[in-house]
Specification:
Layout lengths: L5 H10 L5 H4 L15 E7 L6 H9 L1 H4 L2 E7 L3 H9 L5 E5 H9 L4 E9 L9 E5 L15 E4 L5 H12 L8 E4 L5 H6 L5 E5 L2 H8 L3 E4 L1 H5 L4 E8 H6 L1 H20 L1 H5 L13 E2 L5 H13 L9 H4 L7 E8 L4 E5 L2 E2 L2 E2 L2 E9 L6 E5 L2 E4 L6 E9 L2 E7 L6 E6 L1
Helix pairs in contact: 1-5, 3-12
Amino acid sequence: MTRIGSGHRARFMLVATATALSAVALFGGSAASAPGRTLTTVTVDTLPIANGLPLDLGIQKGFFANHGIEIKKTVLQSGNDIVLALANNNGDIGYLGFVPMYIARTQGIKLTLISASEVEGTSVDDNWQNIMVKSNSSIRTPQDLAGKTIAVNALKGVGEVMIKAALKKVGVDPSSPKLLALPFPSMRSALNNGQVDAFWAPEPFVSQALNLDGDRIVMAPGPVLGKYWPIGGYAALEGWETQNPALAKSFRAAINESLSYAQAHPEEIRALLPAGTQNVRLPIWSPVVDRDKLVQLAKYTKEFGVIDSLPNFVKLLPSSVLSGKVLQGTVGNVFITLRLDGKVVTSLPHGKYTVVVTDNSKTTGFQLVGPGVSKRTSVKGAGRSTWTLTLKKGKYVYSSITHPKRKRTLTIT
């Protein structure tokens, strides 16, 4: 692979915000091997955020070793840093946001998605990536962010696009705030000393600000744009994937297994977090990508001048990556619903779906039964369950476990 050209390097150097040194303090590199086995090393460039921890958990559980892979992990500060590293052959696969992927593709850096990773939540109450302000700040609503200084981890990155798109959607001039690039670990002190009026960050930095500093969430940009908004995934250069098709397939299988395991065992993800941050808001990890939302994200990225043209989606999002939607199920003592993008659904096309169920009752649960599917949450427990399923043509019924007459039919066409 030819090294990244000077023009590409200059742009990414301008938007890259820090070295990996500040990140390693929170999330160090790790690797695992299987004694007596010959494994192929895959170098993964990743970010210092809780969302990337399924990789670490998968290493610990031996998912990668079972697929013949040893992971060498490098922690960088932003998706733009990771693009630059991959383009210079300093890594095989990178965990990064879709916006840096769009930038790369439209500048001739031919990234292709190897696997999906996670999505955002549905509101400020369950979202893990938010705009934070001090408790005594005069900023009370998203409209109050006009003219204020907001810290993001990189200019022309995910944060800038999400913030501007969300502000525009709630009626705020997206060009009115001033964005300042700072590493995630530096944002809390910048807010406390008045260098910025607000900052946009993921976990564990959100919970640190909430619990240690008493800060407030003033806006969750992702949920403003749509329920379960896609954020990032694992990508590689097309050349690497072409030269290593079996290895790419094995990595995809291992990371998808890791994502599913992490989603089902949040306590094991929390155990990997730094002390004092075990109660962070975890993302929803899903191996499916919502291509419609990703096209809309690309349009936002172009609208706000981060890219000049839309990327080649056929190349960026190959058919080997599962397409699907994220459904929102909710059950309480007296109600049960299933929604797509906030709207109750009665029919859907067949295919892959991630179903996120919020169980608000300790006396009943959510049950989904149909062709090839029989899933249920706990009757006595409350919380969130996530299933990635293949819904086939036919009739599915979702119902309250202890109130079987409280049910709805979902037709899959």
